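Format notes (please read before filing issues)

Several people have asked whether sequences and structure tokens are stored in separate files. They are not. Every record keeps both together, in the order shown below: the sequence lines, then the token lines. Line labels are part of the format and must not be stripped during preprocessing.
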Amino acid sequence: MEQLIATIEKGQPFFNAIARNKYLKAIRDGFISVIPIIIFSSIFCLVASVPNIWGFYWPDDINNALWKCYNYSMGILAIACAATTAKHFADAQNRDLPKNNQINFISCMCAAIIGFLLLSSDTIATDAASGFNTTYLGSKGLLTAFIAAFVTGIIYKFFIKRNITVKMPEQVPPNISQTFKDIIPFSVCIAVFWVFDIVFRAAFGFCFAQGVIQVFQPLFTAADGYIGLAVIYGAMSLFWFVGVHGPSIVEPAIAAALVANMTDNLAAFQAGEHASAVLTQGAQYFVVCMGGTGATLVLVFMFCFLAKSQEMRAVGKAAIVPVCFAVNEPLLFAAPIVLNPVFFVPFVFAPIANIWILKIFIDFLGMNGFMYTLPWTVPGPIGTIMGLGFQPLAFVMLAIILVVDFALYYPFFRAYDAQKCAEEAEISQEELAAKNAAKAAKLNDAFQGKADAKSVAAGAAAEAVKADAPATAATEATATSDLNGKRVLVLCQGGGTSGLLANALAKAAKERGINLETAAEAYGNHVDMLPDFDLVVLAPQAASYLADLQKDCERVGNKCVACRGKQYIELSQNGDKSLAFVSEQLSK
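Then the structure lines:
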């Protein structure tokens, strides 16, 4: 096992490079930016559809109003994703460009939207009016949206880097000059998409978005099988186990399928058909990652209530609330689970078992797959029941999954608990022996009339503390004045773990009367926020992005630092240490 882990660790730089790939990052960050659309629209979908399970149907006017809001948000998901992906891709491209010659991401977003519409929609004309065909403007068009965003960013960088732009005199205001600077790359982008669309339709008789779906459909079908699901979610856990954020590598490849399958399931359910897709966003959030990557929900309860080790109980108590809301980094790094050979098997195979159980229920018992999207922070059991539309079989499946996860983790948990108990017992014996030795030495010194070295040292230390009291107060005052008015941004992968440290800093600062402003955000959404902060702290799962973040920070003149796993957990639980850490980083 240790040899296997060592082999995987050797490949960690390669995996980090994949996670930092600007194309994959743009897809991930662009997709994260549109998640509010998915969640918001799903609320209306839930309200409209779930009552049907119990035989209640809304009046037509209310039903139409509910579905209108869903269709006008989820129905343009790909348009929004084309814009957000283009924005994040432009940010990545700008890292390689001079500070005074950057891509205008607003112009880039507009070009990507127009290019996407050219590639994915037809004009519908009637006697009264004309409009767009919306078939591929929602989840079905996500792959085309990514392609449009990348083509746009590449074209913009080509022209901006070589200064092939319309240049205006210095007397012209910057905002007007920027408009003319964008004319050439913007026009070339639209012309490329327009010509390509004409040629493609002439050759195949349908739009490019439909062609993309046809090409990738076999891959989506294979990914929805037992082997495909095992590879996808086994890899996600395996990457996390060696300290690389697995979803950053795996999710971009399946993001389009996750959302499109949810949409297909809902459409099938509404048509009275079987919603058979397994590879969905809901399945990943609430079944595969129940309690976070590795399906650690049952494990944190074991730590909290079944462990005999004091250390494990303490970790469980600290981690149980975050893990219930799918933020399991406190458990992964504090236990630790990451790079801990004891937990390798259940951490990798529990998610696979969970998704296979879901597939068995869908394939053989006729249960419908996930149809409704909820925020990823909804506790796994609740998200499972709601996402599956309160089907009776969903309750049965949930119970089986929890039992299976418990059975997979329990033997390894017991082995680790025994190991930690032995370590604690050994430490206790050493401490007891040291205390007895100290007592014996003290008695011996007293009997011989000699000075007790330990007492002398303690007295000297006490005097030193007294003498140094004003200096300590002065140091604290200096630290306080150094932090007053400062602003700290904490970044992680999804914006969940970063809140732990940001909240700890804010609480500690408030208790000590320090005017310190903190914020938490997902990496990728930080670029426009950087000028408003003095220090940026990377959570351990986002540490591989430090080189890119340093480039971003250099452009605005602020500082950044990455934390290690246990260090981050300790800082998020100790206000004094977190403030001292921030003060140290700002003083460098």
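For reference, the curators noted about this record: The chain is about 70% helix and 5% strand. The longest helix spans residues 392-448.
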